[in-house]
Write a structure and sequence with these properties.
Oligomer: single chain
CATH topology of the largest domain: D-Maltodextrin-Binding Protein, domain 2
CATH architecture of the largest domain: 3-Layer(aba) Sandwich
Organism: Nocardioides glacieisoli
CATH superfamily of the largest domain: Periplasmic binding protein-like II
Number of domains: 2
Family: Belongs to the bacterial solute-binding protein 1 family.
Pfam families: SBP_bac_1
Protein name: Extracellular solute-binding protein
Strand order of the largest sheet: 2-1-3-13-6
GO molecular function: maltose binding
Strand content: 5-15%
Length: about 425
């Protein structure tokens, strides 16, 4: 089973992870800086999140006679990626030219002045290639596009066709969380989710809240004075679903430590029934468990409230250009190539991380690998997705939620209200994570 980040990217094996510590990255960067100062062709350094080779392939494709794009791999954990980049950008390190940024950290980097302005011709390009609204929303801060949407991941509901046949569920119609939990409980199945104490758990909570018509916070432009709305009715409905699953027969034994990889293992087991996970799952079992691969069905993310359209999770990567790059103009030019439809298609083919634009889905190899209805489901799900609130304080908000909502078996009707108070205290300095 492959390892995944909380935004769904396929991670490189640890043995291939380059520059895994700050010291190693600093050494590599100093060497690159030295090489770049000899008057030769400029080398643009792109700090990437770990994957299975998609970003390397795109970097090679977009290198030109005027510059070469090289890659440096960030840690596997998204929080560690943020810390490493933020520390170096705060020091105005000129050796970072391009960087792959998780959506939750986009506003933080932009608000701090770390990102170069996205030029108008790039914005026009992104619009013309049909960049999804969810991708643009996640890449925007203070009404300004601040990163280049590269790939856009979303979660769908994966199910075992043999299980739903046994349970007698009509998957051609929208289903609710209550329905799949009940079906699994009554038929010796397990519902696989991400509920470890990490960002992936907050992704699930956010989707549940948004699916009930609510939001975790409002008025993010107010910073620490934003309105925390997690304690409203939508938050209570989300808590009710988590409590129901955690205390049911459908809960996997490892629920409190489950992530993308362990959830995939549960789904592939004899008790596999339903799974919410990212787009890569469709190809995940091809080589290791072909019988499971043939048994996979898919449909829209479950509804929080029956009759109300779900708001699937949004994940992905935006490419930012450092405000402190010595080659900023070349880096901005390179970024436009890196997010072109062909580049997005190449990356999707190699990693399973789907394009951020409709034209990216026209890449021929994707149409060969995936059924047409699944590619359509991915696109409609991204359009309907609910990105986590774009705020410079998302790390504090997310950490506060994890603190109060974990483990899942502790969640009850009081949890949303308690977490609202805790988030407010943390943001205003009255409490610590």
């Amino acid at each position: 089973m492959e390892t995944r980040s909380s935004t769904g990217s396929r991670l490189r094996p640890r043995s291939r992870r380059a520059a895994g510590s700050v010291a190693a990255l600093a050494l590599a960067s100093s060497l690159l800086a030295a090489c770049g100062g000899d008057g030769g062709k400029p080398e643009l350094v792109w700090y990437i999140n770990p994957d299975s080779g998609g970003q390397d392939a795109v970097a090679e494709k977009c290198s030109t006679d005027d510059y070469t794009i090289s890659t440096q791999v960030l840690p596997q954990d998204a929080g560690q990626q943020r810390i490493q980049l933020a520390r170096r950008l705060a020091a105005k390190d000129p050796s970072i030219d391009l960087m792959s940024i998780d959506p939750p950290f986009t506003a933080e980097f932009a608000d701090a002045g770390f990102l170069a302005e996205v030029p108008q011709d790039a914005k026009t390009q992104l619009e013309e290639q049909g960049t999804f609204k969810g991708a643009l929303d996640a890449a925007t801060w203070n009404d300004q596009l601040v990163v280049f949407p590269f790939w856009s991941n979303t979660q769908v509901l994966w199910y075992r066709k043999s299980f739903v046949d046994k349970a007698g569920i009509d998957m051609s119609q929208p289903v609710t969380w209550d329905q799949i939990i009940d079906a699994a409980s009554e038929n010796d199945g397990k519902v696989a989710v991400q509920a470890n104490k990490y960002e992936g758990y907050v992704v699930w909570i956010n989707a549940l809240v948004e699916g009930a018509g609510g939001t975790i916070l409002e008025n993010p432009e107010e910073g620490v004075d934003a309105d925390i709305t997690l304690g409203d009715e939508a938050g209570k409905q989300a808590a009710g679903i988590i409590e129901k699953l955690a205390t049911s027969e459908a809960a996997p034994a490892d629920l409190s430590v489950s992530n993308e990889g362990t959830a995939g293992s549960t789904f592939g087991s004899d008790q596999g029934s339903f799974l919410v996970n990212w787009t890569y799952i469709f190809k995940n079992y091809d080589e290791t468990a072909p019988d499971v691969a043939e048994d996979i069905g898919y449909t829209r993310y479950p509804q929080t409230v029956e009759g109300e359209e779900s708001r699937p999770p949004y994940g992905g990567i935006g490419i930012g250009v450092s405000a402190y790059s010595d080659e900023q103009e070349l880096a901005l030019e390179a970024a436009q190539c890196l997010v072109s439809p062909e580049s997005q298609g190449i990356n999707a083919d190699l990693t399973g991380n789907m394009p951020a634009s409709t034209q990216g889905y026209d890449y021929p190899k994707l149409k060969e690998q995936y059924p047409a209805d699944l590619l359509e489901l991915f696109q409609t799900s991204v359009d309907a997705a609910a990105p986590r609130t774009v705020t410079p304080y998302w790390s504090d908000v997310s950490g506060s939620i994890q603190n109060i909502w974990h483990p899942p078996r502790s969640v009850n009707d009081d949890t949303p209200g308690r977490s609202t108070t805790f988030i407010e205290d943390v943001l205003k300095g009255g409490d610590l994570l």
